[in-house]
Amino acid sequence: MATEAHGETTGLVFHPMDQFIVRPLFGDGPVHWYTPTNVTLWLMLAVLVIWVLFVAGTSGRALIPTRVQSMAELTYGMVHKMVEDVTGKDGLKYFPYVFTLFCFILFANLLGLLPKSFSTTSHIAVTAVLALFVFLGVTILGFVKNGAHFLELFWVKSAPLALRPVLAIIELISYFVRPVSHSIRLAGNIMAGHAVIKVFAAFAAVLAIAPISILAIVGMYGLEVLVCVIQAYVFTILTCVYLKDALHPAH
Fold first, then answer.
1. Domain encompassing residue 158
2. pTM (2 d.p.)
3. At what angle do helices 210-247 and 95-111 cross, to 10 degrees?
4. Into how many domains does the chain fold?
């Protein structure tokens, strides 16, 4: 909304990216690596919600499941089937890690939609750590399981012999780009959605377009809920694909 200060008219001022600023929980001092911040708080809350749903919520193991137990069982079954379908029976031993990864990203995404919350997965520092653990894990696993045969992942035997060295370089580059694309995809989608919602919320203060902005916010909010689930699914299924490459590297 336009305001007048010292005889000058200023337009609507808002900062949609301010919601992503990392701030200390106590005081206003600088943020060090050991400083408890809003990121720390909401990461811990995500872990707490997962514990409540999958540990406390299923502790009774009722024959007729409660809503919480049903939700936990459906999530468990979906991720279990994803791991088995993509990686095969060999990959099921790594299901606990993949399942934990999915749940953490899903609830971190969803908690970021609460009013006055902080979206931890909008920060590349968070998503890059998750992606780097996946990258290092599958790379180490690939060499442990297959030894030097893991390098067959980069050697396309079905291609003409003259093209194989070129394709090997391309495959090698794309392999090391994996953690970058893996992390940026998640952080970028979450950040973009939250920024758009903030923009529409700011325009809602302008009476002339307030109804349109409110409808747009509702629509964007519903879309963001879908994006939160999809991005958790995409991150997890890519992890399964990378795991399959480590277990069965040959083209």
1. 66-247
2. 0.86
3. 170
4. 1
